[in-house]
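Action item from last week, closing it out:
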Amino acid sequence: MDRKNKKEIPVYDPNLPPIKDTSEIMEMLPHRYPFLMVDKIIELSKERVVGVKNLTYNEQCFQGHFPGNPIFPGVLQVEAFAQTGGILALSQMNQEVKWDTYFLKIDNTRFRRMVGPGDTLILQMELLNPIRRGICHMHGTAFVGSELVSEGDFTAKIEKRKNS
């Protein structure tokens, strides 16, 4: 598949049960409110994961970014990509051990449209290569409806959690 010519848009049906809900996500990731950026996982395979982040005006970031014109910051979109990609990477690891993922590199990141309260951010992360020696390369795309709002290439490393 030529990534530049064809962007597969994930379909989100809120009537279907998630693959992982918030509680299951918190079992895998160390993040907690207000920094848990993924509400549910709706698709998970060896090569791809699709997560959902529902944005409401109650998000703490909207109180100061920007009052009167609330925008979900790009840096938080990147964090949402990281957490969604972390689920993909960690789902392939031995679940008896606690693991964490850490960014090594972010490339080719683009923010194409502002995201704000009332939007449902659909985050798709796809492995670009098989995970080797704990390094994973992924391409992320985020959509609101069928509109691409942000994308980028991410490299992360997987490590055993130090306090597990």
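Closing note: The longest helix spans residues 74-90.
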